[in-house]
Amino acid sequence: MTETKILTCSNEDIAIAADCIKKGGIVIFPTETVYGLGADATNIESAKKIYQAKGRPSDNPLICHVTQAEEAEKYCVTSPFYYKIAEKFMPGPITVILKKRSDCIIPAAVTGGLDTIAIRVPSNETARKLIKFSGVPIAAPSANLSGTPTLTALRHIIKDMNGRVDYIIDGGDSDIGLESTVVMIKNEDELVLLRPGAVTAEQLGEICSSLTIEKAVYEKFEGRPISPGMKYRHYAPDAKVVILDGNDGDVYKFLKSEPNQPVICFDEDEFILKEFPKSFSIGRREDHTSHAHRLFAALRDLDGGDVIYVRMPAKEGIGLAVFNRLIKAAGYEIKKLGDRI
Ligand code: TXA
Ligand code: MG
């Protein structure tokens, strides 16, 4: 058990955290997407500490965080298309998978033994200062225990991670609330979307000649996905998550037969919000950005019982990322309501 100390986003506090990272420690820090569990990406022992603190399988690689797109040169093989992506979306919520250079100093323990590395340039000021003050690339998965909902708020971080890390930097609630978009470059200017996020499929489609969305984004994937993280149970609270796919009337009718259960719904669901004391709105029905921002915290705040019902989100824009996290949290089960035979 480590004694965990909470820090602010002041330069003095970030310097304390950076010093800890330089010395091989592990620190939870804010990014614009979600909180990360960071360590020196060039240090094998630090990487091992991350896997241990998270309870993460060691074949699931970590993202390396740097402050400038150009820093990827030191570790990976880049291309003009990488810089096109960078110019448009970095710093920001995107991660690009690149081929590792043969003289790369980032150990195989960080990249899950793959010959590629995930590069991300966060825009969050505290994250950027932490990387800068540390003077090393920071390897960081999302800060949650493996398999559980991603951490986007301090109260949930303390509950799960106290005693497992050296420091937690409190940056308030995560701005976006879902992890970065992960893409891999295929051929010259073709992209494969491995994980949807705030940089949307629609936006990516505008800058590449073709965009393939990995099957695992939408449905259960049997076999060996490109992104090892796709094969594991993910984002799940203790309660069973059940997605309700149906129109308002059918959803209300179903819920009436299940009183007192927690429900994640929309602002427009006045009936649910009034009748169900454990209901929680993740925003207006069309406000996908709000759904992303609130989903993970809602799954945690409503946890504790047998089940959490969630209304089916839309799949456009950042909605695709919300849908992707939800179907994984629900073990890919969607309850269709109102089907007529
Ligand atoms: O927003 C984010 O991306 C957050 C913040 C902290 O930056 N990080 C994050 O890391 O979500 P993590 O480890 O929870 O998710 C990274 C995903 C995993 O699914 C992993 O398998 C995949 O990226 N990944 C990492 N390196 C890869 C590689 N070389 N090839 C394919 N997939 C990779
Ligand atoms: Mg994660």
Structural class: alpha/beta
Helix content: 25-40%
Write the element-wise H/E pattern from the N-terminal end onward: EHEEHEEHEEHEHEEEHEEHEHEHEHE
Mean pLDDT: 94
Please tell me what the overall shape is. Answer: globular
In whole angstroms, how far apart are the ends?
Answer: 57 Å
Index terms:
341 residues, alpha/beta, 5-stranded parallel β-sheet, binds threonylcarbamoyladenylate
Write a structural description:
With 341 residues, this protein is α/β, with parallel strands linked by helices. It contains 10 helices and 17 strands. Strands 1, 2, 3, 4, 5, 6, 7, 8, 9, 10, 11 and 12 form a 12-stranded mixed beta sheet that branches. Strands 15-14-16-13-17 form a 5-stranded parallel beta sheet. Strand 11, helix 6 (201-205) and strand 12 form a beta-alpha-beta unit. Helix 1 (11-22) packs across helix 4. The N and C termini lie far apart (57 Å). The model has no long low-confidence stretch (mean pLDDT 94). Magnesium ion binds at residues 141-142, 150, 179.
